[in-house]
Write a structure and sequence with these properties.
single chain; alpha/beta; Rossmann fold; ten-stranded mixed beta sheet; 9 helices
Length: about 280
């Protein structure tokens, strides 16, 4: 499963990083405080944005195993991470990065997460994380991941789970209808079976409780302003396109709506972050 391009991921990365719930990031930092090293498995890694955001909060020696189904995104991740680091060098498994006093070994795996084993015992995972992924997966897939992780007592940290909220300013009479159609589209199969969409955060929290985790969650909305005009325009286009697939008879109206929404001065997109440990 992929469906994202490196340009889109680069456009959204500043908003992704700014919106993370600071309190949960602090909980992650506190949970691993005092450790010298940590193995992190990043699911649906894209171009490595999650690593760039989270690495400063983790122990000084890190090994990240980045998994994505798109080889082009993995190649982009290798380049983006090398450019981000203070120093980067190739290794047999991937690359070694040095950044702000941390040493970060990075391995890359091109894999279909719908068929791959989700135990990760072979990697010695100490943390499993994902960004903007769990709203795209099915409940069955997420339950399998939580169950596998629970057996080994591996902490889970999921950020930017879409919660179904989208508010433009100034308002447009079609806003509510477009968002409702978009949210229906979010429940369609995104490669993992029927997607959780806006129910991802709530479902994840329930599954964690069933499997004995102690979980904390917090809102992590995108709060976009006029300086984010390019991202607002792309989001308006994406909402209209998805809504038109649900209601093709309204395609022209939704296209006009997207053109109007591209000039919005403010946009809030709701997300939820969750950190769980045993």
């Amino acid at each position: 499963m992929s469906g994202f391009d490196a340009g889109w991921l680069a456009l959204r990365e500043p908003a992704d990083h700014a919106s993370r719930h600071a309190g949960l990031t602090a909980k992650v930092r506190e949970h691993f405080a005092g450790r010298e090293s940590l193995v992190v498995v990043d699911l649906g890694c894209g171009t490595g944005s999650n690593l760039r955001a989270l690495a400063p909060s983790l122990p000084p020696r890190q090994h990240w195993h980045l998994i994505d189904g798109d080889p082009a995104l993995l190649a982009a991740a290798r380049q983006r991470l090398s450019d981000w680091a203070d120093d980067a060098s190739p290794t047999a498994a991937g690359i070694e990065l040095h950044k702000d006093g941390s040493r970060i070994e990075v391995g890359f795996e091109c894999a279909d997460l719908t068929t791959r084993d989700l135990d990760f015992a072979d990697l010695g995972a100490g943390l499993i994380t994902a960004s903007a992924l769990f709203d795209l997966v099915s409940q069955d897939w997420l339950e399998r991941l939580v169950a596998c992780s629970a057996r080994r007592r591996v902490p889970l940290y999921s950020v930017l789970n879409y919660d179904g909220t989208a508010r433009w300013q100034p308002e447009n009479p079609l806003d509510a209808r477009v968002v409702a159609a978009f949210n229906r589209h979010q429940r369609m199969d995104k490669g993992f079976g029927p997607a959780l969409g806006p129910a991802a955060g709530e479902t994840f929290a329930r599954l964690l409780s069933l499997h004995g985790y102690s979980a904390a969650s917090g809102d992590s909305p995108w709060e976009l302003r006029e300086q984010d005009a390019a991202l607002i325009a792309r989001l308006a286009e994406g909402f209209a396109r998805a809504a038109s697939e649900i209601e093709p008879e309204a395609r022209d109206a939704y296209a006009r709506w997207a053109a109007d929404r591209a000039a919005a001065v403010r946009l809030t997109i709701g997300h939820r972050d969750v950190f769980a440990a045993k």
